[in-house]
Amino acid sequence: MVVTLAIKNKFSIIFSEETSCDYILADNLIAEKWFAKIKHLKNIPIDPIESKLENLSNLQEIYEDFCKENQIEIKQFENIKDQSVLNELHKLYEDNHDKLSRINSKILYKFHHAIHSAEEGGADRKNITVAWGTKEGLLAEQFNCNPYYAEELKQNNIYLRWAELGKTPLKYWQNNEPSNQARINELCKPHTTLRAQFNICLKDFKPKTFDQNFVEWFAQYKDAWLKHHKIANWDGIDEYSAVLLAHTDHKINLSGKTFVKIVI
Q1: pTM of the shown model
Q2: DSSP, res 135
Q3: Rounded to whole angstroms, what are the CA distances from 21 to 50, 62, 201, 218, 261?
Q4: How many domains does the chain have?
Q5: Which residues share a beta bridge with 247?
Q6: Rounded to a whole number, what is the largest CA-CA distance in the chain?
Q7: Could you tell me what percentage of the chain is helix, strand and coil, using 3-state DSSP and rounding each to the nearest 5?
Q8: Is residue 2 pLDDT above 70, yes or no?
Q9: Rounded to an integer, what distance in angstroms lies between the CA atom of residue 89 and that of residue 127?
Q10: How far from each other are the two terminal CA atoms of the chain, in whole angstroms?
Q11: Span 207-229, pLDDT tens digits
């Protein structure tokens, strides 16, 4: 019986340049749920936008394409990558998500990822992202993921990707979003959507302590926000970490590699 379970919970991921890693599924409920989704998706091509394989650097062009394809008036911005403008564009995405996700999802999600790419400002890649976008269909489910978050992230291990229509509290504050409870409750999100998409961590990482300025700002809104989302706490692990899905003994450097397929 032990041997059967070990085989059942083993799989491999093939990367570019004929690189591969063998994995063992993590021992937690979310990993089991995730693996069941992966079995349905393993032969379906991943989404290049959601998997961060497309060039999203020209936000102005992507914004204009988004507006033209959806009959939205194009506004002129002095600097489209100014954070206040990015916040405005993100609100435009939110306002149109429910309607356009049913009829024109490709440009919608390309626009969304281009906004966040501009916010990251060319930061070094921390993960290999694997996602199927709308091809997941009905596999997404509501589940409180934060209690399962790992205390630290390890190189080459697989972790659940945060998948909310919003921002984490720290990102919200860093992006200078409005300091009012209603908007915080609306846009700040804990991890409550369990999707098949995942990240492969490229280097070890330990969650950091919060900036004291953020702690003081969030203290005004935290209790009401926790109550609104029916969660008990929000700390550095909730903000920076993720749920461990599978672990590997491979220590090969995967930087520069791309996902090819998963073999179960």
Answers
A1: 0.90
A2: G
A3: 22, 35, 13, 40, 11
A4: 2
A5: 24
A6: 65
A7: 40, 15, 40
A8: no
A9: 25
A10: 19
A11: 999 999 999 999 999 999 999 99
